[in-house]
Design a protein that fits this description.
four-stranded mixed beta sheet; 3 domains; P-loop_NTPase; Rossmann fold; Outer Surface Protein A, domain 3; Coenzyme PQQ synthesis protein D (PqqD)
Length: about 400
């Protein structure tokens, strides 16, 4: 038994192994009915699904075939949802902006409102509220192509039947009575909104989020941002085209449709531009300092922006907003630089301070802890020595999101 689905543009076949005929295929087909793909499109990947007790002789896994087994149908359905979503995200990595968000579309224009937030923020509840009158696009992953178009992903919604349930039930949008996007109307991102649900909020409000803060917050709810070409620059352009990022503060999801029914008043765009990114250079014996002490160097940066005088950088997979002091240190440490040199640079720019040495050292250590700078200890000779166990160590690598 095979269910043919489209996962964010990726054709996948779900092969159901159900020798006891307990209704696995029917349950999956009903919940995934809006993701069924048309005939004639061959699958790129296959997922073989079975209950544990029926999986005595599963096929061998391969790069194009993955296996899912579970102790019961509910867990199997939940695992299938997570697995398919991850497959779709990985397929689009580097070619689309991938927001952890719910989205709905206008029935006439196809304009999409994406509500961004972490797990537990209420996205699925918000999706149900918004899709009573707008088209249900997704409750999990909003994929935005370079031209601003949105790939629909009307997956089953993950709903807790009871507050104390640990496993969410996978319920199809048709089962919940959610409106479907208008056929033939292209979907295009119109607004990015950060969800901020507060049960004690008395007066719901929509407010503008400054560009730098918006990029930092959005980046924590995006997948593979670092793989996208010129990621910060491209994201800033997308935000600018869609009228900026807004935050909605609310208590009940039922208030969201009215709160977001009209676009916010137009506001002037903030000043921003690309900033020169750092590339870590090697210190040669001829240029190595003789004095002992700590040296710092900016880690290789994927992208950087200057926004109203502040620097925003993407290092590894982390977006960091630098303070004026941090921005100066980052710019001054393109090569290995002694901490004393950094201290003098800060005094030249910001003036003397009785605790300037302590403040400079603290700023350097903070930037190293954030992964912005790497550090090493220099001995009395012309080159670096290996740090001893008690010496300050370079900051650890950030895990992939």
């Amino acid at each position: 038994m095979t269910i043919r689905v489209d996962i964010l543009g990726l054709p996948v076949d779900l092969v159901i192994h159900d020798p006891r005929h307990i209704g696995i295929e029917e349950a999956l087909r009903v919940s995934w009915n809006r993701c069924l793909r048309t005939e004639g499109v061959d699958a790129v990947l296959t997922v073989w699904c079975s209950l544990d007790q029926d999986a005595a002789d599963p096929p061998a896994a391969s790069p194009t075939l993955s296996l899912i087994t579970a102790p019961d149908v509910s867990i199997l359905r939940s695992t299938v949802t997570s697995h398919l979503t991850l497959m779709g995200i990985e397929d689009l990595a580097g070619t689309s902006f991938l927001f952890h968000a719910t989205a709905s579309s206008h029935p006439v224009t196809g304009d999409v409102i994406a509500l961004v937030g972490p797990s537990g923020r209420g996205k699925t509840t918000a999706a149900q509220a918004m899709a009573r009158h707008r088209g249900y696009v997704t409750d999990e992953t909003v994929a935005v192509l370079p031209d601003g178009s949105v790939l629909g992903y009307p997956k089953p919604l993950s709903v807790k039947a009871h507050a104390l349930d640990t496993i969410k039930t996978q319920v199809g949008p048709d089962e919940l009575g959610l409106v479907a996007p208008t056929p033939g109307v292209p979907l295009s991102l119109a607004r990015l909104v950060l969800l901020s649900r507060d049960p004690e909020c008395v007066t719901p409000v929509v407010e503008r989020v400054p560009l730098a803060s918006a990029i930092v917050e959005l980046s924590t709810e995006m997948s593979y941002l670092w793989k996208y070409p010129a990621p910060l620059y491209s994201l800033a352009r997308l935000i600018e085209r869609t009228g900026g990022v807004h935050r909605v503060r609310y208590a009940e999801a039922a208030t969201l449709p009215d709160l977001l029914s009209n676009p916010p008043a137009a506001e002037g765009n903030e000043s921003w531009s690309s900033a020169e990114i750092s590339g870590a250079g090697e210190l040669t014996p001829e240029t190595a300092p003789v004095s002992a002490g700590l040296q710092y160097r900016a880690r290789p940066t994927t992208d950087a922006l200057e926004i109203d005088g502040n620097i925003l950088i993407l290092v590894e997979n982390q977006v960091v907003l630098l303070s004026p002091v941090g921005s100066l240190i980052w710019s001054a440490t393109r090569e290995w630089t002694h901490s004393d040199t950094v201290h003098r640079t800060l005094i030249e720019s910001f003036g003397p301070h009785p605790d300037s040495a302590i403040l400079a050292e603290r700023a350097l250590h903070d930037l190293a802890d954030q992964g912005v700078l790497e550090q090493r200890l220099i001995g009395t000779g012309p080159g670096p020595k290996d740090p001893s166990p008690g010496d300050p160590q370079p900051s650890s690598e950030h895990p992939e999101k």
